[in-house]
């Protein structure tokens, strides 16, 4: 845990509906500094909605969300300066070079342009992108873009990092480095909120796993704690069990039989 034992994020009775659809049905969560939270759940469970509320992107909700001890609906957006965000699909400016994009983001966070430039250049080098720092992002591969988004989320030295499927497109070596970076950041007291569908990774990197299903928290604990309460030995198995899914074989067989229906 960090310098003080107060939660860095507190969520109480968080509810959110879109029209008549209840998406979040009362989420309660206390997150402490240094935790890597694996925030998982089926498609449509409400993960992104929770994260968007914490980022201040969705303002209409009921319940209370405090970040760094401050209610985020107070109108004071100062807390955002100490947050990093890697969205699942990021729109980055294709026509800019890596340098232009990252110094622009750095300046938005209030960094001096030279400071942002130096930091971005060093990080690009460490992520094996030194040679393309001055090339247009439109020429980057998927994994290279993903690394640029990750670098942009780290420029402001955030205390809380929200990551949504951050490894997408990254090669095995880069994944290994990045997983280590997350562990190092957490050991320095940074808090990481990690949403992903890759259960093997979530199982390995998370100090705490929060599983939401249909807008409610259905499991909350370390992987070992979740395993003790379950008959399953893997996070994938626990996920299937707690979300009531045990038909993967039947569904797969049906898909294959539909695929085979057409005779050409
Ligand atoms: N702006 C919106 N307007 C209407 N419905 C929305 C909106 N945003 C999300 N939803 C609905 O809220 C539900 C939860 O969506 P959310 O994106 O939070 O799920 P998720 O858990 O992040 O899913 P995934 O794993 O697929 O990313 C879904 O049914 C989705 O259709």
What's the shape? globular
The SS-based structural class is alpha/beta
Oligomer: single chain
Corresponding CATH architecture: 3-Layer(aba) Sandwich
Please give the share of residues in helix.
25-40%
Largest sheet: 6 strands, mixed
CATH class: Alpha Beta
Which ligands occur here?
Answer: adenosine-5'-triphosphate
Cα radius of gyration in angstroms? 20 Å
Mean pLDDT: 92
The CATH topology turns out to be: Rossmann fold
User: How far is the N terminus from the C terminus?
Assistant: 63 Å
Please indicate the count of domains.
1
Beta-strand segment tally: 10
Low-confidence blocks of residues = none
Assigned CATH superfamily:
P-loop containing nucleotide triphosphate hydrolases
Number of helices in the DSSP assignment: 9
- Along the chain, the helix and strand elements come as EEEHEEEHHHEHEHEEHHH
Fraction in beta strands: 15-25%
In spatial order, strands of the major sheet run 6-7-8-3-9-10
Protein name: ABC-2 type transport system ATP-binding protein
InterPro entries: AAA+_ATPase, ABC_transporter-like_ATP-bd, ABC_transporter-like_CS, P-loop_NTPase
GO molecular function, one term: ATP binding
Keywords: ATP-binding, Nucleotide-binding
Verbal overview:
The chain is an alpha/beta fold and 264 residues long. It has a single domain (34-45, 81-254), classed as Rossmann fold. It has helices at residues 47-54, 98-108, 113-126, 142-154, 172-187, 199-205, 223-228, 235-242, 248-260; strands at 9-18, 21-31, 36-40, 62-67, 70-71, 83-86, 160-164, 191-195, 208-213, 216-221. Helix 2 (98-108) crosses helix 3. The mean pLDDT is 92. Bound molecules: adenosine-5'-triphosphate. Adenosine-5'-triphosphate binds at residues 18, 23, 41, 43-49. The site of adenosine-5'-triphosphate has 10 residues, from helix 1.
């Amino acid at each position: 845990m960090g310098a003080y034992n107060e939660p860095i994020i507190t969520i109480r009775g968080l509810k959110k509906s879109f029209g008549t659809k209840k998406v979040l049905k009362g989420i309660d969560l206390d997150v402490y500094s240094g935790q890597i939270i694996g925030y998982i759940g089926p498609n449509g469970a409400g993960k992104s909605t929770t994260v968007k509320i914490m980022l201040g992107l969705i303002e209409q909700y009921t319940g209370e969300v405090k970040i760094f001890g401050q209610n985020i609906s107070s109108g004071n957006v100062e807390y955002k300066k100490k947050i990093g965000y890697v969205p699942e699909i990021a729109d980055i400016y294709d026509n800019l070079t890596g340098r232009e994009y990252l110094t622009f983001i750095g300046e938005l966070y209030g960094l001096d342009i030279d400071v942002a430039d130096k930091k971005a250049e060093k990080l690009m080098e460490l992520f094996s992108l030194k040679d393309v720092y001055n090339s247009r992002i439109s020429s980057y591969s998927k994994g290279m873009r993903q690394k640029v988004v990750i670098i942009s989320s780290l420029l402001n030295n955030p205390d809380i990092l929200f990551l949504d499927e951050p490894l997408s497109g990254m090669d095995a070596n880069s994944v290994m480095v990045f997983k280590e970076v997350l562990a190092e950041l957490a050991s320095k007291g940074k808090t990481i909120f990690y949403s992903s569908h890759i259960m093997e990774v979530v199982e390995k990197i998370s100090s705490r796993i929060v599983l939401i299903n249909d807008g409610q928290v259905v499991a909350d604990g370390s992987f070992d704690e979740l395993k003790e309460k379950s008959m399953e030995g893997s996070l994938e198995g626990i996920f299937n069990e707690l979300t009531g899914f045990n038909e993967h074989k039947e569904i797969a067989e049906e898909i294959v039989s539909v695929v085979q229906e057409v005779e050409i």
